[in-house]
Amino acid sequence: MKAKRALVSVSDKTGIIDFVKELHKLGLEILSTGGTAKALRDGGLPVKDVSEVTGFPEIMDGRVKTLHPKIHGGLLARRDKPEHLEALQKLEIGLIDLVVINLYPFLKVTADPKVDLETAIENIDIGGPAMLRASAKNYAGVAVITDPADYPLVLKELAETGEVSLSTKGRLAIKAYRLTSAYDAAIDEYLSRTLAQEERIHLTYGKGQTLRYGENSHQKASFYLDEASKDSSVARAEILNGKEMSYNNFVDANAAYEAVKDLDPKVPAVAVVKHTNPCGFATGKTAAQALERAWEGDPISAFGGVIATNQKVDMAFAEFLKGDSVKHYSYQVKDGEYVAQEVNTGKFVEVLIAPDFEPEALEFLQKKSKMIRVLKVPEVEVVDPKTLRAITGGLLVQDRDMQLFEKFEVVTQKTFPGHYQALATFTMTACKHTKSNSVILGRQYEPGLFQVMGMGAGQPNRVDSMRKLAYTKALENLKREWQRLGKSGKFEAWAQQEINGMLLASDAFLPFDDTVREAAGLGVRYLIQPGGSMRDEDSIKACNELGVAMAFTGLRHFNH
């Protein structure tokens, strides 16, 4: 059945004049109300007022305009039911084939913290949602258009066939119900907060997809997209190569990309993540150099890991991962030592995330491996200000941890050389993205370029994070580097000198002076922590006694 009549009532008038001009050219009669009717007439278009159709004037400052049987009858009548059509004819009600509506800008108005209740209430649309719901319910007969982005498709179909296809009308109906649902949710949140002093939150996720399995193979899992988010994220990434993403791929890829997002985007950086912890983290003059240094932070754990960079991936980057001219190794423990075994298939990587890829590098990776998942992430539009975490029976919502330091206050007699503040920023960023209790040993390997040498993650006490994990891993890395560089002399003396220059960062305050004393005994001479313990003075005293420089940052970075 060809479309003959359209009802147009919009708050967002983007593109509406041109759209209705085309509807008019196609022979549709245009019904409208209030400000929309005026705008259309000012645009030179013939318009019939809804009040002329209903025989009833707009009343109560426009609060009642379209809530009338001659409007809703024309929207709800089923074209396939003769009794519906007979009722319309008997009551002199005309069919309405297109409804073009968007709602009063309630969200925009209430986003202003100074808005008063009366203004907010006057921006609650009544007639609009009623018509949207009626039209969407009867989508087989009525095309309901809520978004200017859909105007071109609707015009194309009308021009070709005289009507909007059933499949398009179905999609438009879903869009209308989503709009009214979100609109009602916004009203609920505002009025609950304003009238009942009750905080409520409504969350909507779409584009659901079934994953192969969950965290473990016996668990079912799905992924849903927050369609309102404009943040640069793995969730919004384009998959350029590889198998579908798994549950664990999403979790680890998110951890890796969020880590590199926290660093200066002008400085190439790479994170290598395993089970959400950055086992490798480094900056470089190029992304390839940063990758090499990050990989060397823990090449044993990097095997089968997830890699993220904040730079475009080039051939040098791709060659390091899969190049035939590069020697690739996996590691196994024999007699208490890690032993390298050369592999000819390149480094095993689950996921690679980057803002872009040079065509040559992407083609190379695609040819080398059908398995590696290659993700291109979009640019940041707006950073999501909140983070959400589900617990059994509830949801935790918090501000995103955006600020790294509140201060950089040196509290000891020994001070920090100039480059250590930049090293502190890098090392505490690594700490922030490592599971608590976390302790990180970072170093400057070239002027202005930094590398995590030892990570202590997820321990119930931070002395173990430092002594048993971060320090031990740093020594392993140093020994491998010493051998690779063919250093002469005693390894212990060279390693001690390297440790002396590293910076130790703790994600939370040191409750006792034991961490300082243990670290100093292992050769650490520079330390940063948030401070704030009742026994800060004990740690300061220990630092002064042992020749350690310590700074307080003022902000804790627990990560659970």
TrEMBL record:
Q: Name one GO biological process term.
A: 'de novo' IMP biosynthetic process
Question: Locate the MGS-like domain: which residues?
Answer: 1-146
Q: Which pathway does this polypeptide act in? A: Purine metabolism; IMP biosynthesis via de novo pathway; 5-formamido-1-(5-phospho-D-ribosyl)imidazole-4-carboxamide from 5-amino-1-(5-phospho-D-ribosyl)imidazole-4-carboxamide (10-formyl THF route): step 1/1; Purine metabolism; IMP biosynthesis via de novo pathway; IMP from 5-formamido-1-(5-phospho-D-ribosyl)imidazole-4-carboxamide: step 1/1
Is Hydrolase set as a keyword in this record?
A: yes
Query: What does it catalyze?
Result: IMP + H2O = 5-formamido-1-(5-phospho-D-ribosyl)imidazole-4-carboxamide; (6R)-10-formyltetrahydrofolate + 5-amino-1-(5-phospho-beta-D-ribosyl)imidazole-4-carboxamide = 5-formamido-1-(5-phospho-D-ribosyl)imidazole-4-carboxamide + (6S)-5,6,7,8-tetrahydrofolate
What Enzyme Commission number(s) apply to this enzyme? 2.1.2.3, 3.5.4.10
- InterPro entries from the UniProt entry: AICAR_Tfase_dup_dom_sf (IPR024051), Cytidine_deaminase-like (IPR016193), MGS-like_dom (IPR011607), MGS-like_dom_sf (IPR036914), PurH-like (IPR002695)
Record GO terms (molecular function): IMP cyclohydrolase activity; phosphoribosylaminoimidazolecarboxamide formyltransferase activity
One Gene Ontology cellular component term attached to this UniProt record is: cytosol
Q: Does the keyword Methyltransferase apply?
A: no
Record keywords, A-Z: Hydrolase, Multifunctional enzyme, Purine biosynthesis, Transferase
* SMART domains (UniProt xref): AICARFT_IMPCHas, MGS
Q: What is known of its domains?
A: The IMP cyclohydrolase activity resides in the N-terminal region.
Which NCBIfam families does this chain map to? PRK00881.1
- Family to which the UniProt record says this protein belongs: Belongs to the PurH family.
**Name by which UniProt lists this protein:** Bifunctional purine biosynthesis protein PurH
> Which species is this UniProt entry from?
Candidatus Lambdaproteobacteria bacterium RIFOXYD2_FULL_56_26
Q: Which gene encodes it?
A: purH
